Amino acid sequence: MMEDTRSVASLMDSTSSKIQQLQKAFAELESQRAVTLNLKWNELEEHFHGLERSLKRRFHELEDQEKEYETKTRKAQELLEKKKAAVEAKEKASLERLQRKRDAAVFAINTALDKYSNNNAPNISAKAFAAEDETLDGTVQDAEISPVKAYPELVKLCEDVDSAGLHKFVSDNRKNLALLKEEIPVALKAAANPASLVLDSLEGFYPTTTDGKKDANLLGMRRTCIMLMECLSVLLSGLDSNSLAAVLSEDVKDRAKGVAEGWSPLLETIDMDAGNGNSLEAHAFLQLLATFGIVSDFKEDGILKLIPMVSRRRQAAELCRSLGLSEKMPGVVEVLVNSGKQIDAVNLAFAFGLTEKFPPVELLKCYLTEASRSSSQGNASPAIIIVICVPMQDEFSERELTGLKAVIKCVEEHNLEEQYPVEPLHKRILQLEKTKAEKKRATEPTKPQTKRPRGPQPRVTDNNNNKTGYGRVIPERYPQYVYDNRQFLSGPIMEAQAPPPQTYTFSPAPAHGNFYGNCYQYQAPPYFH
């Protein structure tokens, strides 16, 4: 690059000698010319000097830009090297910290196994799980001291193997769901057999006398059952093979298999939420298989058919991993796309790295196109049946509004704003909400309003001839003018010029008489002009 710059500079410096040679040639040509030329050497010289100045100015500009680019490149390289060094230092520190924790965990596990073998306990006590109670400095807390701080009642309920009490306590404190999910796995360590305790809590998931679609308490109870199974999975994930085999014994697995076989036929009559991918029954069944390790006892095709029923659930991706369906997810995502559940398909595609095969932006646009088409078809009803189709139009508009909000949430969760701007979607939401509000105001019945008289209120006086008991109203439509009492408006001259008042009496029709519409008689007052 520098050699090219030097060659260009040398060529530009040689322009002066080239111009002098051209001048000599031009003078020789002019001396031998037979015809007078219109051009003069001064004009040619000025032209070439102008070109020379322009080229030098552009050349210097390019040199400055090249220097600036080299400076920026050097600074960027230095910054990258600093960041690389910082990342390597952090990685090294993390590995060292992880190694210390690993050594401490291995020591804690060996200690717990020694205690377990010395005590020869027939069940799994809290000491068997001491390896999980590792602190940040690598030490192990005493298992006899409960680490449950917010809800110590959980430990007591687990020690007493009170499944009904545990169920009720969790249901009553669901407002602090995040804290419960952290402390329940720790509290389950106090149970003689955590897996049996959770299985006992599943009783009543399918009651025989209550309609699950209408009973809100039943829905809450089912959510609690799912959460307890999830917490048990968290506990089991931290155990070694020996402790895991002791907790999930063959008897426990047989009990869990019996429960699953009893639930399986009932999945054919699940509620309408299954079509929306939000079925609690299907979620509980799949969680039961994953938590107790009995997936192999059921057909894979039947399990795959249940995944679309829970695709909208927050735990859908983790549940599929626990069931060992990671390799089957491309087919599951394709089924969701074909069934109109593009948003669920996008979420699972991100969770399992399938975004290249299933482009998220295209799926979201397809989802909105279908929602908008349904809305436009609902609004294109003939004028004769508009009144009949108003509820259907409202349903289509509400469906499009829900779809827009779901797409915006999906875009924001997966950081797709650059590929799919959401500003047009927000404008469309405002338009639909405005239309919805206008339709609501138009359909609301108008309330009759009492008319209030304007201006001063009429003066009511007694009338002895009025037999109805109501006072006669003397109309005073205009208040007295403020200048009526001036002296120059009175006197003999003004009285002589003023015309006499004329009186007009209005007589009602003889067929009706002096009566109002409510059969009350009235006396017509005279009108003055």
From TrEMBL:
Q: Which residues form a coiled coil?
A: 12-96
Q: Where is this region: Disordered?
A: 436-472
Entry's Pfam families?
Answer: Frigida
Q: In its keyword annotation, does this UniProt entry include Phosphoprotein?
A: no
Q: Which Gene Ontology BP annotations are present?
A: cell differentiation; flower development
Q: Which UniProt keywords apply?
A: Coiled coil, Developmental protein, Differentiation, Flowering
What PANTHER family does this protein's entry cite?
FRIGIDA-LIKE PROTEIN 3, FRIGIDA-LIKE PROTEIN 3-RELATED
Q: Which family does it belong to?
A: Belongs to the Frigida family.
Name this protein carries in UniProt: FRIGIDA-like protein
